[in-house]
């Protein structure tokens, strides 16, 4: 552990926390800890932006000598400065990265204490592709930047103790040994607060213990394979088929694809997925390992397209209600209302209907106009109420008729055209076929997001059709990445102009 900071310079502490995580409480605890034990203390805060684009920065300075009448009142700073912070407390891993980026963390003096869990930013969530920042890279850079780096999953510790992250951070701050206060003084501060004392003390203890342990090795979340010996005979047959008839290098992805499609529709739908894959693998060029992995992954994703039925199903699942209750930390004796804003376009309504009826309603007659007018403003459905739940339950139950819907017919036709393009390219250029298979990444989401992605995908497929085998795989990759960079198509247009593929 580092030596306590006992100089006649202020101890400078920056806290980066998001809303609802108790950053203000943590700052108040540190101020109270100092003031009750002979220190001048001051705290300020700079609010972040809502919707997870930045955290509030709380800044605390502690100066010794408040218990000495001869010590003059110090002039303390109002905000942290790069290269001049002793301790940085971050409630989430990205915030630790932001602190490093801003220069608050230096290898000469700064102790960085951070949770390793992630709350994805708006930029990460809204990216057309995988916009997530590499957590391991964040940890590596933070460790290189700090004098001492204490990190573990504090969200999990808070959940285990029934408290919030601020109490875990307070415990980790004690465990780091950088402040000249005893454990008793830390705990007395929590007791003086008088709110949630017992769970806060539990969280404090857990944080202190974790901080004293060797650094943990961060492990990203990984998907779990479905049960190897499922009770459902049809599912067991599908798994056995993968094990015996598919190459080893696609087993994991194929099993995950089957799991996803059973959850989405039924075992028969998952069987059609395997049938398609085997037919593709049997074609000329279909034995290329990279192409096979791309097809196994992206075919499963496209076949589980997000329609109104899927959205309704996900919103009324027990796991979702449990997750929301956990996130807001609702107690068993507390009621929780969950309001869902639903705004289906007329296109989604038509596509949810049987094919013939959907095509009829899609035509611009007076009924079409009336339905469009009734649904243009959207509505709020309280899924925690009986009536709201039953509305979405009825829609989710329509998945039994999904194969008859207009949307199913449209998506199935698009999938077949895409697979045909992959098959044709694989005969002469498996690398190009792989890039075509990965173009599925552009099509995702629902409503306007899906419409924009589909438009960009169709542009890519038109380029593939126009240039055929003459199209260089690297050029298609550039075009696809441009489409993923901007859902409105501006970057794709620039890339097409640069490659002379207008």
Top keywords for this entry?
disordered N terminus; 8 strands; 2 domains; elongated; pyruvate; 502 residues; 6-stranded mixed beta sheet; Pyruvate-ferredoxin Oxidoreductase, domain 3; alpha/beta; Pyrv_flavodox_OxRed_cen; two-stranded antiparallel sheet; 23 helices; Pyrv/ketoisovalerate_OxRed_cat
The biggest beta sheet, please?
6 strands, mixed
Spans of at least 5 consecutive residues whose pLDDT stays below 50 are 1-6, 216-227
Mean pLDDT: 88
Quickly count the helices: 23
Terminal-residue CA separation: 62 Å
Helical residue percent band: 40-55%
- Please give the number of β-strands: 8
Overall outline: elongated
User: In percent terms, what proportion of residues is strand?
Assistant: 5-15%
- Oligomerization category of the chains in this entry: single chain
CATH superfamily of the largest domain: Pyruvate-ferredoxin oxidoreductase, PFOR, domain III
Pfam family, one: DUF6537
Enzyme class: oxidoreductase
InterPro entries: DUF6537, IorB_Oxidoreductase, Pyrv/ketoisovalerate_OxRed_cat, Pyrv_flavodox_OxRed_cen
Protein name: Putative indolepyruvate oxidoreductase subunit B
Describe this structure in words.
This is Putative indolepyruvate oxidoreductase subunit B. Residues 19-207 form the Pyruvate/ketoisovalerate oxidoreductase catalytic domain. InterPro entries: DUF6537, IorB_Oxidoreductase, Pyrv/ketoisovalerate_OxRed_cat, Pyrv_flavodox_OxRed_cen. This protein is an alpha/beta fold and 502 residues long. Helix content is 54%, strand content 9%. The protein has helices spanning 23-35, 93-101, 122-126, 135-145, 154-161, 165-176, 183-193, 197-212, 233-245, 251-264, 267-281, 289-303, 308-315, 318-327, 346-352, 355-362, 366-375, 386-397, 406-426, 430-438, 447-467, 473-485, 490-498; strands at residues 11-17, 39-46, 56-64, 87-90, 111-115, 148-152, 339-342, 379-382. Strands 2-3-1-4-5-6 form a six-stranded mixed β-sheet, sandwiched between helices. A two-stranded antiparallel ribbon has the order 7-8. The relative contact order is 0.07. Residues 1-6 and 216-227 have low confidence and may be disordered.
């Amino acid at each position: 552990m580092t030596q306590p900071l006992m100089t006649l310079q202020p101890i400078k502490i920056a806290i980066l926390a998001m809303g609802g995580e108790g950053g203000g409480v943590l700052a108040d605890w540190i101020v109270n800890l100092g003031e009750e034990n002979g220190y001048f203390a001051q705290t300020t805060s700079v609010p972040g932006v809502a919707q997870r684009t930045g955290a509030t920065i709380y800044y605390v300075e502690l100066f010794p000598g408040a218990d000495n009448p001869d010590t003059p009142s110090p002039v303390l700073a109002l905000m942290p400065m790069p290269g001049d912070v002793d301790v940085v407390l971050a409630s989430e891993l990205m915030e630790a990265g932001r602190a490093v980026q801003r220069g608050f963390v230096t290898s000469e003096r700064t102790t960085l204490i951070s949770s390793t869990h992630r709350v994805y930013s708006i930029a990460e969530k809204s990216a057309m592709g995988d916009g997530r920042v590499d957590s391991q890279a964040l940890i590596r850079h933070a460790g290189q930047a700090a004098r001492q780096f204490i990190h573990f999953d504090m969200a999990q510790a808070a959940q285990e103790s029934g408290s919030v992250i601020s109490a875990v951070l307070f415990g980790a701050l004690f465990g780091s040994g950088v402040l000249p206060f005893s454990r008793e003084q830390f705990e007395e501060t929590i007791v003086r607060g008088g709110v949630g004392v017992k769970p806060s003390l539990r969280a404090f203890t857990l944080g202190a213990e974790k901080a004293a342990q060797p650094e943990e090795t961060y492990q990203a979340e990984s998907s779990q394979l479905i049960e190897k010996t499922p009770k459902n005979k049809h599912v067991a047959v599908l798994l056995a088929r993968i094990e015996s008839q598919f190459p080893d290098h696609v087993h994991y992805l194929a099993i995950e694809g089957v799991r996803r499609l059973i959850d989405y529709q039924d075992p028969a739908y998952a069987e059609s997925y395997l049938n398609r894959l085997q037919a593709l693998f049997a074609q000329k060029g279909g034995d290329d390992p990279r192409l096979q992995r791309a097809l196994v992954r992206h075919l499963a994703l496209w076949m589980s397209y997000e329609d109104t039925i899927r959205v309704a199903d996900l919103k009324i699942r027990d796991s979702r209600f449990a997750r929301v209750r956990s996130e807001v930390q609702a107690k068993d004796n507390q009621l929780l209302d969950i309001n869902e804003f639903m705004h289906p376009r007329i296109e989604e309504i038509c596509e949810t209907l049987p094919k013939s009826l959907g095509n009829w309603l899609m035509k611009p007659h007076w009924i079409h106009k009336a339905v469009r007018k009734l649904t243009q403003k959207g509505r709020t459905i309280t899924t925690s109420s009986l009536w709201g739940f039953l509305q979405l339950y009825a829609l989710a139950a329509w998945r039994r008729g999904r194969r008859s819907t207009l949307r199913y017919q449209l998506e199935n036709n698009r999938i077949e055209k895409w697979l045909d393009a992959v098959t044709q390219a694989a005969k002469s250029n498996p690398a190009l076929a792989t890039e075509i298979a990965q173009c599925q990444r552009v099509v995702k989401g629902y409503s306007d997001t899906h419409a924009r992605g589909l438009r960009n995908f169709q542009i890519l497929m038109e380029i593939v059709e126009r240039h055929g085998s003459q199209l260089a795989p690297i050029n298609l990759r550039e075009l696809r990445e441009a489409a993923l960079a901007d859902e409105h198509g501006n970057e794709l247009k620039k890339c097409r102009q640069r490659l002379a593929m207008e």
